[in-house]
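dude i think i finally got it to work??
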Amino acid sequence: MNNRLVRLALAALVVAGSTLVGVAVAAPASAVPGLVFVSGVSALDSTSSKEALAVCPAGTRILGGGGYVNGGGRQVGFTRLQALGSSDRFAAGAAENGAYAGNWRVHAYGICGRAPAGLQYVSFQTASNSDSYKAATASCPAGKQLISVGARTLNGAGNVVIDDLRPNSALTSATVTGYEDEAGYAGSWSLWSYGVCANPLPGLQLVTATAAVNSADKVVGASCPAGKRLHGLGAEITGGVGQAIHAGVYPDAALTSAVDISLEDPTGIPGNWYTRAYAICAT
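look at this
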């Protein structure tokens, strides 16, 4: 990985440092009053799987969020990036792919705000079986639009990679894909897609940014236009087919950009691949 590129991305977006653990950062006024960035972090140790929770302030609801894996040596991937509507937290979970001797931790980042009109959390789960690839789509009810995307794998023992967390262009549905890695997984697993929906927000807009198509690790960010704030985000990997992992899918602290960091696994990818970051913005 181009370590300098990652350091610059993380420093500019001010999300991976311990100074933001467990704090809320207020953003300028937006379509959703009280919009804030919150964060949480897991323990730093060699446990094979762990989760972190970013908790919304009292009186606000969870709208979206993301996560970042600190450490892991290309052997730790996300198992969960989910807005928990029942408790107004954002959960980021990750697991080792095989044994990783070093310490690592996972950060969770949430976007919270006063409940927009028509707020609703939707989900869809695939069948649980041993298929090597799965796709799940959660759709908003008629008249509502998507403001956030989430995903979760159930089982997989670290051998299932969350590949896409993709809003559609009309912002009416969230599609998640998952692949078994090159080692495969003999057991059954399932995939969840999550969406956060609401009545259309003023100025609601999907912004995308695409990384270069090559065989290198990727950092890409999608920024909201001036005057708009980030309400949700997503990312996708194309051409990785289980051999590239998202190491970070997260909002910046100012809630103006969505960033994706993706890495090749330890054996690399023989061909070219690329990533895309999605920012769901509103005024």
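The first strand starts at residue 24 and ends at 26.
im so relieved honestly
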